[in-house]
Structures are given as C-alpha cells and as structure tokens.
What we know:
By secondary structure, the protein is an alpha/beta fold. The protein has a single domain (5-239), classed as Phosphoenolpyruvate-binding domains (TIM Barrel), CATH 3.20.20. It has helices at residues 5-10, 28-36, 48-51, 63-76, 94-108, 120-132, 147-150, 160-176, 188-197, 218-221, 239-260; strands spanning 20-24, 41-44, 81-85, 112-114, 136-141, 180-184, 202-205, 213-216. It has an 8-stranded parallel barrel, surrounded by 5 helices. Helix 6 (120-132) links the parallel strand 4 (112-114) and strand 5. The two termini are 40 Å apart.
Amino acid sequence: MKWTTRKLRNLKTKQDRKKLTMLTCYDFQTASALNQSNIDLILVGDSLGNVVLGYETTCQVSIEEMITFGSAVKRGAPDKFTVIDMPFGSYASEDLALKNGILLFQKTGAEALKLEGANDKILKAVDALISTGIPVVGHIGLTPQFFHQQGGYFTHGKTKEEKNLLLDQAKKLEQAGVSLLVLECVTTELSQMITDELSIPTIGIGSGNVTDGQVLVINDLLGEGPKAPPSFCRPVKNFYQEKLDAIDAFINEANKQVTKNKGDQSEYENIYN
Length: 273
Ligand code: KIV
C-alpha cells in the first residue's frame, strides 16, 4: 500500500492495524530493495553523517548532502513514502526552514521532512513548512542534532520534569500539524503515555515496543558497521564480516588469476560489450 500523509494521520482510527515499519536508507540500491519489500516508510536520516560519511556527529551534515542522498533514495524507491531529515542548522529560523525545506522537498521528491526538537523556534519552522504544503514528521527524546547540549546519547523521560516536558512537546507538535512523531530513546512508560495521548502515530527507536511503529538504522539492523550497534538493536546479519570475507575471497581469486594468466590478456577482451 502506498502511504499518504492523510492515511498516516488517520491510522489510529483503524481497527486491527499493524505496526508501521520504517527503515533508514541512504543509497539507490538499498532503496530499490526497500521499494520491492513490504516496508511502510523510508527515512533518509541525517544518521547518514555517521554511518555513510564517517562524521563524528550529525551536526556536520549539510543540506547539499541530504539532497544528494535523498534524491538517490527517491530514485530507487519511487513507490515508498519517504521522509528526509532536515540537517542541523537548516531550520534555525523560519526563513531558513522555508528556504531549505522547499529546496530539499522539491529537489528530492520526498513525501515529508523531519525536524528534531520542539522549542518555540522549531514549532514556528514546523508551522511555516506545513502551511506551505510540506508534510512534517516530528522527532523528540534523544535528538542527535542537540548532542552538544544534551551531553551524550542516553534514555530520556526518566524524571517527572522530563516526562512533562516531552509530553508537552509531543502535544505541541501534534497541534502544529505533524503527521508522525519519532520517539528516540524515551522510556517505555513515557512512550506509552505519548502514544495513548496523541491521535497521530508514534514511531519508536530504542523506546520500547509500545509505539505505533518502529524505526531502525538499516546499517545497524544488517550489522554493516565496524562497531557494535546501539544496545536496543539486535542485528539480523553481519554484513561487515561478510564484506571482509568477500574482499578476502576476491584477493585470493585475483592472486590465482595473475599467476595463471601471466602474459595472456585474451581472457579479458570484450567483457564490457
Ligand atoms: O537520522 C536518523 O536515522 C534518525 C533515526 C534514528 C530516527 O533520525
């Protein structure tokens, strides 16, 4: 089924609904596989800064990079509802949000843009985008673009004050018109409270199994990185090891060929016809 903003916003009125599934994606080939799959939603997360570009934090990701990777994903997955992250600083004011949001939305063909946080400035940016016709996804709890202010990666919503603040942020984002709300590393108790309170779907990552949907960074799910993924993600594959094995196999095979074909290039002719 092809999701639309309207279907997503009405999801909670449906009986017997399944959990929404969302995976991140950053490239054309993975997007093509996701396009063939039953995944509901794709997120071109600014986590591409960590897993694809090797930056230390997502704060280093630029709008140009989000356009390049977002467009590649959309070319591979034209049938999927695709959300693209607005990167750090690109919505620091209403004017910037509009300028960058319109650019990102038009150049990539995304179905929605995602912004982190819910302070007054961000709520104004969300409002400006939505009133222009750009669907927006919210994201609260652990918000990596605020890494330097939050002081690390940890679970949010443990104290009463934090709970009240996050619940209030969730309600304000809903009122501002977001279509979905991502809850990252929020306690299961608070995830449940927010999910019960809101009429729009919540999508959790590291926030228990009580949200309306789940999202994971695909590289974590596939075990693609040199380091272990966050503790809430249980990888289903070890692609990193498989890559090492494939590289070794290639080297061994190539070494055998060099010896066998010394002085004879005929085997390599016309391969690229
Ligand atoms: O950038 C990202 O991948 C995200 C997910 C972790 C939700 O925002």
